[in-house]
Amino acid sequence: MLPPGGGLxxxxxxxxxxxxSVGSAAPGDSAPDALNVLLIIVDDLRPSLGCYGDKLIRSPxxxxxxxxxxxxxxxxxxxxxxxxxxxxxxxxxxPDTTRLYDFxxxxxAHSGNFSTIPQYFKExxxxxxxxxxxxxxxxxxxxxxxxxxxxSIPPYHPSSEKxxxxxxxx
Length: 170
Description:
Elements: H1 7-22, H2 60-67, H3 82-91, H4 95-98, H5 107-110, H6 117-123
């Protein structure tokens, strides 16, 4: 069972395994038989899905996706703070090598212009896109969610205003 807050890292492990399987693609190769990659990053997901045995949560689409995917049972946090953790996950580098420990430093300027995993896919013929919070918003992602480096199209941030005062449970 995943520790509380382990959902983001679980998904990071999924991405790492997918990247390992497509790492042999030739640059610019967009052959029709190239693997599709779907990375879903969710804050604080926990193992609250049917595929992890939760009987209360109904998640048929995620359960079906999990039934055809590699399902990880363990997760590890690379940093206790969101922005450094996301940069570590998305660059494949440990936080001590990115030297990012806060929300107030743009990692490309502060620690080095490292390639990101989505940037790698983009440079190898994949269309990459970001919906919602992938990089931590604000200074740590240069107020751009690392666009245009990592993304083929500008990131999309849907409004969450309509959920502000919504009940979580009946």
